[in-house]
Design a protein that fits this description.
globular; 5 strands; Beta Polymerase, domain 2; five-stranded mixed beta sheet; alpha+beta
Amino acid sequence: MFVKHFETIAYLKDGTPRQKQAYSVLLQYQILESLAEYTPILAGTIPLNIDIESSDLDIICCYTHKNSFIESLLQLFNGFSNFNLKETSINSTETVIVNLTADNFELEIFGQNVPVKEQLAYRHMITEYSLLQHYGEELRQEIVTLKKQGYKTEPAFAKALGLSGDPYQALLEYKID
């Protein structure tokens, strides 16, 4: 499933106060425009209105050449406070992660040589969006409550829905009745 409105951040400007703040910060610092060649998409909890105070802005990107992506990240964001760049492997996929602070938001820029709509962060967000659309405000409130208790997003959904096993995989496999 693909949800077109997540392609841009326009939906944030009419959203919750926190979504409006995120929109403002992303525009002010031209974060997504700066990353345009890497097809950035804002993923995670803030787009879904299931964020808590400590939630960050997760921006997923697709690179073709890892070293060029790293060079771009260094040029664009090295001057931000709390800048940190690391290379790692996630699910056997080379991954570059940058963390930084822009105004009152922590940002995580996540890049892989995988199209953004095929990355797990995007796939989880779209599944979570569908579940929230289907089950409504009661599920949203339960997820926020579980997150405030320390649950990560996917395990919170798994607990709320009574899913067993690996919550990340179970969520992707979940079928709405």
